[in-house]
């Protein structure tokens, strides 16, 4: 029996890295019976039947996992967020942040394509950056850093971590990875060649070694992760709401219609951003109004 980590999954095969070697495995029927689907990032136990083929015995407990993109045991997510082409969306960013907060994965917001903007528009993004820093999120606006500082930052950021690169199609995930690690030669707009196993469709997620850590480039998403929480718990995934909620009059305050709500006071004095509050309300209503099937895990 060997232990390793799933690097990629492709047509029913799972490529597992163990002692610097890749082993091709399959999942046995007992996984299907138990409705367990192995995903990239899973730590597994496996056995080889011959040199070329083996099977998975067990998936070790996951620290966390995401559905879109399907990946497990992640330390942090780099949210590649473009200013234009595709246009910046507060709603999309907040939705991604909530999804990561629910899964207990640290987000880092990385802005791209500011080089395509005029100076007044750049100021607008500097304000966005400040707002999210204020909430407590790490943000990176590459144009404000020297080449060396940016490199240094990215090396330290990825080292010894498992990082997932997320963002809309065309936001610049592969371009950024190529900048960090030119040896990868990722085709922009197309998911990578990893471990020389040939071409994959952009539907695939796979892990690569970059700067002493593991990175997953992921396809741009076309639909959202279902937020698997109750509406009244959403407030806990907006950090600036959570840390002030003990000053609301009511303990269970969801910051909508309750009197003496600290969050609404902070909103009117401009200390909580209107866009954050609006996105909170819209997500709250989506969760509240969805079909009961999604209500509980
Ligand atoms: N001007 C400018 N162009 C960029 C920047 N980052 C990416 N691009 C361009 O944007 C396009 C899309 O970039 P990709 O790296 O393929 O985007 P992606 O996020 O990997 O897209 P998918 O793989 O489809 O999810 C390419 O033509 C890049 O050259 C940037 O910071 N500035
Ligand atoms: Zn409140």
Query: What oligomeric state do the depicted chains represent?
Result: single chain
Unreliable parts: 190-202
Order of SSEs: EEEHEEEEEHEHEHEHEEHHH
N-to-C terminal Cα separation, in Å?
33 Å
Which cofactor or ligand species appear? guanosine-5'-triphosphate, zinc ion
Strand segment count:
13
What value does the average pLDDT take?
88
Computed Rg:
21 Å
Bin the helical content.
25-40%
- Report the portion of residues in β strands: 15-25%
Secondary-structure-derived class: alpha/beta
Give the overall form.
globular
What is the strand arrangement across the widest sheet? Answer: 10-9-8-11-13-12
User: What is the number of helical segments per DSSP (H or I, 4+ residues)?
Assistant: 8
The biggest beta sheet reads:
6 strands, mixed
What does this structure look like?
This protein has 297 residues and is α/β, with parallel strands linked by helices. Helix content is 28%, strand content 24%. The protein has helices at residues 29-33, 90-102, 119-135, 147-158, 173-180, 239-242, 262-268, 274-289; strands at 2-10, 13-18, 21-27, 43-48, 54-59, 65-66, 71-72, 76-82, 106-112, 138-140, 162-166, 206-210, 213-217. The strands form 3 sheets. Strands 10-9-8-11-13-12 form a 6-stranded mixed β-sheet, with helices on both faces. Helix 2 (90-102) crosses helix 8. It is globular. Bound molecules: guanosine-5'-triphosphate (GTP) and zinc ion. The site of zinc ion has 8 residues, from helix 7.
């Amino acid at each position: 029996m060997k232990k390793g980590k799933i690097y990629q999954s492709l047509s029913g095969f799972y490529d597992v890295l163990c002692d610097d070697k890749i082993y091709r495995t399959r999942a046995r029927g007992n996984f299907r019976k138990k409705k367990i689907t192995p995903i990239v990032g899973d730590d597994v136990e496996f056995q080889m039947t011959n040199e070329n083929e083996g099977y998975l015995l067990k998936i070790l407990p996951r620290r966390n996992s995401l559905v879109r993109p399907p990946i497990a045991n992640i330390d942090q997510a780099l949210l590649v967020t473009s200013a234009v082409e595709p246009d910046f969306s507060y709603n999309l960013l907040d939705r991604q942040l909530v999804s990561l907060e629910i899964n207990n994965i640290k987000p880092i917001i990385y802005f791209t394509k500011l080089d395509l903007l005029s100076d007044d528009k750049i100021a607008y993004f500097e304000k966005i950056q400040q707002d999210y820093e204020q909430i407590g999120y790490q943000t990176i606006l590459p144009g404000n850093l020297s080449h060396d500082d940016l490199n240094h930052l990215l090396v330290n950021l990825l080292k010894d971590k498992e990082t997932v690169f997320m963002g809309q199609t065309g936001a610049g995930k592969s371009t950024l990875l190529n900048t960090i690690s030119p040896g990868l030669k990722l085709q922009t707009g197309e998911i990578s060649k990893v471990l020389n196993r040939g071409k994959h469709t952009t539907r695939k997620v796979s892990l690569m070694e970059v700067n002493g850590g593991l990175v997953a480039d992921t396809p741009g998403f076309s639909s959202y992760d279902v937020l698997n929480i109750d509406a009244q718990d959403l407030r806990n995934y907006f950090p600036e709401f959570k840390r002030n909620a003990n000053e609301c009059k009511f303990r269970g305050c969801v910051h909508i219609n309750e009197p003496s709500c600290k969050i609404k006071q902070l909103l009117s004095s401009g200390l909580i951003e209107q866009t954050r509050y609006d996105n909170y309300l819209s997500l709250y209503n989506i969760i509240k109004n969805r079909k009961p099937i999604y209500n509980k895990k």
